[in-house]
Amino acid sequence: MTRRHALVAVWTLPSAILVLVTALTFHGFRIPPPDRLDDPARASVMAVLRQALADQAPGPCTVHAPLAGAVAVSVWTSGRTVARVDGYGADVAAATDHAAALLRAHPAVRQMLPATRDAARIQVDIVSGTGPLGGGYWLFDLLAIPGIGDMLAVNPGVDGVGAELGGDHPTLLLPHELVASKLLAAKRPSAELPDLAMGMDLDRIRNLLASRAGKPHQPREPPLSFAVFRFRTDTFVERRDHAVAPLALYRGIAAARPKLTGAALRTAALAGAHYLVEHLGKNGRYVYEHDLTTGAQTDPLRVGGSYSMPRHAGTTYFLAEAYRITKEPWLKEPIERAFKHLADLLANGNCATRLADGTEIDCVLDKGEVIAHLGSTALAVVALAEYQRATGDDRYLPLAQRFAAFILYMQRADGSFRHLYDATAKQRDDKSELLYYSGEAALALARMYVVTKDERYAAATERALDWLVGWYDFMLGGFFYGEEHWTCIASEAIWPRVTKASYMEFCHGYGKFLRAQQPEVGEHPDEDDLAGAYNVTPFVSPYNTPAGSRTEAMISAYLLGVHRKAPDAEVRGQIRDALAYALGQQITPDTDFDVVGNADGGMPGSPIDRSVRIDYVQHVCSAMIRASEWIDDPAM
């Protein structure tokens, strides 16, 4: 199969199947959304529970709203649930009073110090509707995937799962508890598509329910097979200061999105920069990943593991970009610390060499590596050049020039690049081709032209972009694209030295292709919170990184249109929709109640992936800071 055939297959086959599955599953399993309590009613419920947490006799709740199950109450302290009770009654008022009595008597609450009680935050989940989990559509059996309807019926982060396991009331796993258990998006239906993760692990969820009911499942026993059901909730949580009405939640985050303005984007981008600076080790290496549920963090002093040098360089590029645009003085030292780490790696590495014509080249190698990746060096150049653009300080220029010479050495005559280099054998790999690297290399050369005006870099950038854009010159090339966000960023970065209309046309076509994956409000039932993200089906929770990386590309695509007096209004709308989504996903002081450790400003992997990696923050916040410069200007 050729690269083009593979590209067509990857985009068409999964989408066609999953669109059909989407329609059938929503038809058979959907639970209507709840009639949510208003602000005064939420505040009234919370006041009763807050009195109970403070060990005061709570006054009776007066919110006589209908109820389809329990009023579940979770008490959060330092990002962890320390107490959980389920209240029952004829309506919300009666169930809240029951929950308050249980909460006041809870052993963990009785042991809490007054200061801890004051700082704790209460979350309420009011069960508003239930539905079956099962059904067995004939089509799934025909496709030899029986049970996929059960696997996909849960709307991740929205639905909870329960079971009647004896006792007076059902055993419940709340929506956020399913997310924390990492049992959603846990199945891979196709061995040929290993990255397609979707659906829940129902066997393990049954085990978890049994354990909560006091009937733990033994590993050697057959899988449990009792019936389970789904339920939906009206969910809200106390804000950090407890001073205003509780915050309505949907899929674990604030139900109401922040207003999209340049100021809001700038504030959010700088919050992301603060997160990265606080997660930067003294050695200039980042805490690569932070698990929000457990608080576990990767060690910046540990060499190897999953640490990515391209992402290190890309993250430092964002910090330099943020410094160039905002001139915030606290950014400068961390950027230089991250650069020093690169310099230390070079001093201890073995990539430096002199070519036959006398040119000195060097490349980025992590400790212990012998194969250099083009992307690591390319993004290092982008970061170094961005710092020079921001400060006018050319102290890193000699280093950037050696890196850029390596990139030129890796470029072929037709504009394409070799992506791997054996630093020990001093040999380029002519076979391997990896995602992103060619576009990153093109951007690096474009940025080098901007800071040096050396025509070698401009010519090499043009050759690279001609190859990247020209690759799609086949019958279906305008209908299918790979991940070409770096290509579009580089196309705008080299303007006005290179002004080919084909670059703008390519990027506008890429934008149209991406918009087909960007749902609008009302397009998918109960998923308006995901509008603006990029996804192929409601059953695969959208990753947050594409909302950043693709928006970076679309900002460049839009600016190419502005440069040519032909701005694309649809691209502008696409940018706004993605940024509105991303603003709602970022961790803030109001939404960090379930975060272990300090992660304000961080960007989780997805609405149901409770981890933050440095590149998640980099891409989203880079898009935010770039858009903040012009998003309020109606003439742009």
Give a written overview of the molecule.
The structure is a single chain. The chain is α+β, with helices and mostly antiparallel strands and 636 residues long. Helix content is 44%, strand content 12%. It has helices at residues 3-29, 39-53, 92-105, 107-110, 114-119, 138-142, 148-152, 175-180, 202-212, 262-278, 309-326, 332-348, 374-391, 397-410, 437-452, 455-470, 485-493, 501-515, 545-563, 569-585, 614-627; strands at 71-77, 80-87, 121-132, 159-163, 171-173, 229-237, 247-250, 253-254, 289-291, 353-354, 360-361, 371-373, 420-422, 427-429, 604-606, 609-613. The strands form four sheets. Strands 1, 2, 3, 4, 5, 6, 7 and 8 form an eight-stranded antiparallel β-sheet that branches. The longest helix is centred in the first third of the chain and has 27 residues, at 3-29. It starts with a helix and ends in a 9-residue tail after the last helix.
